[in-house]
Design goal:
30s Ribosomal Protein S19, Chain A, about 20% helix, alpha/beta, 3 helices, about 15% strand
Length: about 120
């Protein structure tokens, strides 16, 4: 892969789907100064965990707090336990999930309703 002037090199270890440019968060920095149409963000610590599991023959559950990380093609077939604020929820990664964020598959808020208590108080009157 060639290097374009002024831009960091692309991640060569991960296979790239057509039309998708993969850059790590450290290469991007805080702001998006590149005019790429679509960028997948994934922190180095998560990429390192996935590479370790890929080299082993055994499958392990990868634990992460990173909800904003994008799902990369190298994650397909792995189970990733994502923290929702209270507990870790294991998610099995499949092909249609590539390009989405990890947080899209984990509900972080629990909606409560008080309808049952309201019905009880009305019946007592």
């Amino acid at each position: 892969m060639g290097v374009v002037k002024g831009k960091p090199p692309l991640i060569e270890k991960n296979p790239q789907p057509f039309g998708v440019i993969l850059r790590s968060e450290e290469e991007l920095g805080k702001g998006n100064k590149y005019n790429d149409s679509f960028i997948l963000r994934c922190p180095h610590h998560l990429l390192a965990k996935i590479e370790k599991v890929n080299m082993k023959e055994e499958k392990e559950i990868i634990v992460t707090w990173s909800l904003a990380s994008s799902i990369l093609p190298t994650m397909v077939g792995h189970t990733i336990a994502i923290h929702n604020g209270k507990e870790y929820i294991p998610i099995y990664i499949t092909d249609p999930m590539v390009g989405n964020k990890l947080g899209e598959f984990v509900p972080t808020r629990h909606f409560m309703s008080y309808e049952s208590t309201r019905k009880d108080t009305k019946s007592r009157r």
